[in-house]
């Protein structure tokens, strides 16, 4: 039983990235802070939220989120403040607006273009005439025999 508890504690270690001195006394504000920090990317760890990361920058961002919430900002205002400061890259789920539509649509668009190009290539290849096997002329046979004898 002790081993099972130890294994479960090791698996849950990233959840404990928020340190006790960061936790707000107000449970409602803390829940909002955890919700916001789960949607923000750690700029050091890349694909890890600041809620899961142990990096010093992630800690600073978690503290900044809590400061903004204690100051009275809404969730959207807090996220907007951090995005204004660090750029849209800080969002784990980027917004599909403006120039991001190009990024969101580029993958499916490239797939459709590749399928269209493959279709054209295969059609052109199927319409091409079959290569004809022609027999060697007497002169070519003589030359080939000379080459093989050498």
Report on the structure:
The chain is mostly helical and 150 residues long. It has a domain at 25-98: Cytochrome C biogenesis protein (Helicase, Ruva Protein, domain 3, Orthogonal Bundle). Helix content is 59%, strand content 0%. It is built from six helices and no strands. Helix 2 (27-37) crosses helix 3 (56-70) and helix 3 (56-70) crosses helix 4. The longest helix has 28 residues, at 100-127. The termini are far apart. The mean pLDDT is 84. Residues 1-17 form the signal peptide. Possible subunit of a heme lyase. Belongs to the CcmH/CycL/Ccl2/NrfF family. The chain crosses the membrane at residues 101-122. It comes from Pseudosulfitobacter koreensis.
Largest sheet: none
Name the CATH superfamily assignment of the domain at 25-98.
Cytochrome C biogenesis protein
Portion of residues within helices: 55-70%
In the predicted model, the low-confidence regions spanning at least 5 consecutive residues are none
Please count the helical segments: 6
Looking at CATH, which topology of the domain at 25-98 would you report?
A: Helicase, Ruva Protein, domain 3
Rounded average pLDDT = 84
Strand content: under 5%
């Amino acid at each position: 039983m002790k081993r099972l508890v130890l294994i479960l504690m090791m698996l849950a270690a990233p959840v404990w990235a928020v340190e006790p001195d960061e936790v707000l006394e107000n449970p409602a504000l803390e829940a909002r802070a955890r919700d916001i920090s789960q949607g923000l990317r750690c700029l050091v760890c890349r694909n890890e939220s600041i809620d899961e990361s142990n990096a010093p920058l992630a800690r600073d961002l978690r503290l900044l989120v809590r400061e903004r919430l204690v100051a009275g900002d809404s969730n959207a205002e807090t996220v907007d403040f951090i995005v204004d400061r660090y750029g849209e890259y800080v969002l784990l789920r980027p917004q599909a607006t403006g120039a991001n539509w190009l990024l969101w649509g580029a993958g499916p668009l490239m797939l459709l273009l590749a399928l269209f190009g493959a279709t054209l290539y295969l059609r052109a290849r199927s319409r091409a005439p079959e290569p004809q096997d022609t027999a060697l002329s007497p002169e070519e046979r003589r030359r080939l025999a000379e080459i093989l004898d050498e």
